[in-house]
Amino acid sequence: MDSSQSFILELFSLIPGEVWGAIIALTTVWISSRNEKTRLITQLQAQAEESEKQRKSDLRREVYLEAAESLNRLNSHLANLPNLDPSSEEATSPNDMLRFTGLSAKVQLIGEPETSKLASRVATQYGSLFLQALQQLLPLHETVQEKEIAEEAYASVGDTMEKTMAQIDALTRSGQQSYSVFEPLTNDINALVKRSDELKEQIHKLGNQKIRYQQDYMRWLLTRLKELSEPTIELSLALRKELDIQGDIKEFRETAKRNHEEIQTELESLIALISDRLEQSQPLSEPDKSN
Is the pTM of this model over 0.90? Predict the structure, then answer.
C-alpha cells in the first residue's frame, strides 16, 4: 500500500461513526429517491402511452361505428331510389353518399395502413356505383314523368266530361229537345270517352313499364352489391380487428354471403310474382295520382 492510500485510510479513520451513519443514510435516501424518480417517470410514461392508446381506440370506435352505419344507410338509399319521386330532393340529393365518403376519409386518416387502403377502395367503388345508379334510373324517371302527364290529362278529361254532362242535364231539365243543340254535346261526350279510355290504357301500360324498370334496377343493384361484397367484408373485418371485436372470421364471411343470397332469392321470387300480374292485359285498378 503506497503512502497516498495510507493517508486516505487514515483520513477515513478520523471520521466519527455518527458522520459515517449520516453519510450512509443520505446515500440510501439519494439512491431510493433516484429509484423512485425513475419508477415514477416510467409509470407516467406508461400511463401516457395507455391514455393515448385509449384515446385512439375511443376515436376509432366512434368513427368506425359511424362509418358502418353510414354504409348501411347508403345501401338503403340506393335500394329505395326507384321508389322516390324523381323531382324530390331526397331522390336527387347525394347526402348519404357524401356522408359515407366523409367518414371513409376519417377512417383513412386514423386507421392502420391496410384498413385505410380498404376504406379508400370501398369509398371509390361506392362512388362509382352511385353515379351508375343515377344513370340506370333515367328510363324509369322518364316513364314516371310520362305517367304523371297522362294522369293529369286523364283527370282533365274527366273534369271536362263532368262539365259537359252537367250541360246536357241542364238542357234536359229545361225541356230542350232540339237535336242541333244536343248533337255537339253528344259528340263531345263520345270523343271524351274515347280519349279517357286511351289515357287509361296508356297509364296502365306506363305503370307496368315503371314496375319493370324498378325490377331491372333492383336486379342490377344486387349484382353490383355482390361484386362489392368482398372488399366490403374485408373492410368490416379490418375494422373489427382494430376495435378488438372477437369473432369467427370464416363464419362472418359465410353469414354475409348467405344473407346476400337469401335477399337475392326473395327478390327474384317477388319479381316473378309481380311479372305474373303484369302479364294480365286488363288494368288492375283505376289510375290515380301516385307514381
Answer: no
Residue type, 207: G
* DSSP H helical ranges for 111-248: 113-136, 138-174, 179-242
Residue partners of 190: CB distance under 8 A and separation at least 6: none
Distance between CA 85 and CA 278 in Å, rounded? 22
Distance CA 161, CA 185 (A): 10
Q: Which residue has the cell 439512491?
A: 31
How many Å apart are CA 193 and CA 171, to the nearest integer? Answer: 20
Cell triple for 99: 356522408
**Nearest-5° Cα angle at 134, 275 to 64:** 105
Considering only CA atoms, give the Rg of the chain.
40
Task: Tell me the per-residue pLDDT of 153-184, one tens digit each, with 9 for 90 and over.
Answer: 999 999 999 999 998 888 888 887 777 878 88
Distance CA 118, CA 135 (A): 26
Distance CA 196, CA 200 (A): 6
Angstrom distance (rounded) from CA 9 to CA 87: 103
